[in-house]
Design a protein that fits this description.
- Helix content is about 80%, strand content about 0%.
- It has about 180 residues and is mainly alpha-helical.
- The chain has one domain.
- The protein is elongated and about 75 Å long.
- Keywords: Membrane, Transmembrane, Transmembrane helix.
- InterPro entries: Memb_transporter_dom.
- Its main location: membrane.
- This is FUSC family protein.
């Protein structure tokens, strides 16, 4: 009969569609879970702005595991660069009475130069204002930088781990079905 596919072909099509649907559902659950778990972990360890942990958990969550790994590494390294720049600029300019807006301008300028040379680290540019704008007068720039870095680290690792776990489950289900 013309038009009927081989039963093996039909089974492969059904399995392919099921795997795509499973990956779609896993992406939604990973993103939601990364935001929620990162935020809750940030609160549990006493981080002052766990929103950055939640956001990092979402930001690193990509379609493919390799992309999530790359996003996680870039986000963590870029954050470290941005924290180092902001802490250095803040520490050196505070005794001079320089306004926060000028500190942001200087630090983002330096970070932009780094990002221009190393595009995967461009998160360093927005890390600088975050360090300046989330601190309080009683906290040193170093302490604020450590907090922001910890929040990003916590969120990034959480998002990446959830992706690894989801990928393992999907592979186990669908690779087993192909054998």
């Amino acid at each position: 009969m013309m038009g009927l596919a081989d039963p093996d072909d039909r089974a492969e099509i059904v399995q392919s569609r099921a795997e795509k649907h499973a990956r779609d559902v896993a992406f939604v659950l990973r993103c939601s879970g990364a935001a929620t778990v990162s935020f809750m972990l940030g609160q549990a360890v006493g981080l002052p702005h766990p929103v950055w942990a939640a956001m990092s958990g979402i930001i690193v969550s990509q379609e493919r595991l390799g992309e999530t790994r790359d996003a996680t590494v870039s986000r963590l390294l870029g954050t470290l660069v941005g924290v180092a720049i902001a802490v250095t600029v803040g520490t050196l300019t505070t005794p001079l009475g320089i306004a926060i807006a000028a500190k942001v301008a200087m630090s983002v300028g330096l970070a932009a130069a780094v990002a221009r040379l190393y595009p995967p680290l461009r998160v360093c540019m927005w890390t600088c204002p975050i360090v300046f704008l989330t601190g309080d007068p009683e906290s040193s720039y170093l302490l604020v930088g450590v907090y922001r870095g910890t929040e990003v680290l916590l969120g990034g690792i959480t998002g990446a781990l959830l992706h690894v776990m989801a990928e393992a489950v999907i592979r186990r289900i669908f690779d087993h079905g192909r054998q």
